[in-house]
Design a protein that fits this description.
80 residues, 2 helices, 44% helix, mainly alpha
């Protein structure tokens, strides 16, 4: 498994969780866990409908180069 050498990848998901918390949990007092779950699910559905690809993700990363293969990954046509 490739692990990034910097924190740029985790930062993408941190932004998603921050928005989730801001729009569904901050300042809320849900009467039940079910009500809280419903609010979170509603936000996730809303967010997914408006999602766009993150086109500039890891632009300079070596894993985007065609000649880069992590250790243990066979080249196409050469092994399992």
């Amino acid at each position: 498994m490739f692990t990034p050498s910097n924190a740029s990848w985790p930062n993408w998901i941190e932004a998603e969780f921050t928005a989730l918390r801001y729009f569904t949990l901050d300042g809320s007092d849900y009467p039940t866990h079910t009500a809280q779950e419903t609010a979170i699910a509603g936000y996730v559905r809303w967010s997914n409908k408006r999602a766009r690809p993150k086109g500039r993700f890891a632009v300079c990363s070596k894993i985007r180069r065609l000649d880069y293969l992590p250790c243990g990954v066979p080249e196409p046509g050469h092994g399992a």
